[in-house]
Amino acid sequence: MKSIFHILAPILVFMFTLQIHDSVAAQNSSPLAGLSALSESDIRNSAIAFVNTTASPGLEGATLNVNNGRRDSDQWRSSLGFTAEVTLRDHIFNAYWGLGIVGGSLVDNIQLVGDSDQPVTLDIKRDIVSLRASFGLVFPINKYFKLRPALTLAVADLQTITTIDGLLDNTNNPTVLNFDNSAQIGSSTGSIDALFWYWHNNYRLNLSVHYNLIYTDSFSDDNPILDHHAWNSTFQLKSRISGPTSLT
What is the rounded CA–CA span in Å between residue 99 and residue 101? Predict the structure, then answer.
């Protein structure tokens, strides 16, 4: 006797992060001419960019790798949650809500040039855990397409370990500096999701577009630089194909 199970084919995920008010210079792949060019604003923007690309709604799990000779970076995120759509009688729309926990990490190795033209290595490790709740409405446009505006509230804990190897002390000898910082982050995200699905024989195609406008506020007891707030946005395109397989 054969059973039919639906499995997910390879998922194509394209995520584009748009910074509205900030340029993330600390995450630029071009080498810095001097380490002093790295400003407090760059550090804040880099942290906010990591939080938003890791914890923003619409993406369940993903990995990102950058390796261009001067930078070797690995970032991943994963989530576990629950979403539900509630039918509202005598309304043309339904209600939507969800709860979730998101975890992610970034390991970044960047080769820089010091102010005395000496090589400097910057190692950054960031870990984040976020809890979020989402509420919204679902507007069915037709049997293939629906729109879903939603509001997501989230809190997160961010841990950062930074090592700078190669800075010169007062006697021009290379030194190693270590920093261990934490920050607590609250965010509000307004989202518009466009969801499309289509059946062809036994295969189903899902396409979705997610736009998030995010307000982020961070607090840190051990690093005043991370006491910061910012407006940003993310834009995501996702596709998925599912089909049957026979298992005995």
Answer: 7
pTM (two decimals)? 0.74
Q: Return all residues near 136 (Cβ < 8 A) that are at least 6 apart.
A: 95, 96, 97, 148, 149, 150, 151, 191
Q: Confirm if 35 and 120 have CB atoms less than 8 A apart.
A: yes
Q: Which residues of 171-204 are buried (b: 16+ CB within 10 A; e: fewer)?
A: eeeeeeeeeebebebebebebebebeeeeeeeeb
**pLDDT single digits (tens) 56-115:** 887 677 788 888 777 888 999 898 888 888 888 888 889 989 999 999 999 999 888 877
The secondary structure of residue 56, as a DSSP letter, is -
Q: Distance between alpha carbon 213 and the CA centroid of its chain, in Å?
A: 13
The count of other CB atoms within 10 Å of the CB of residue 63 is 11
Question: Quick one: how far is CA 138 from the chain centroid?
Answer: 24
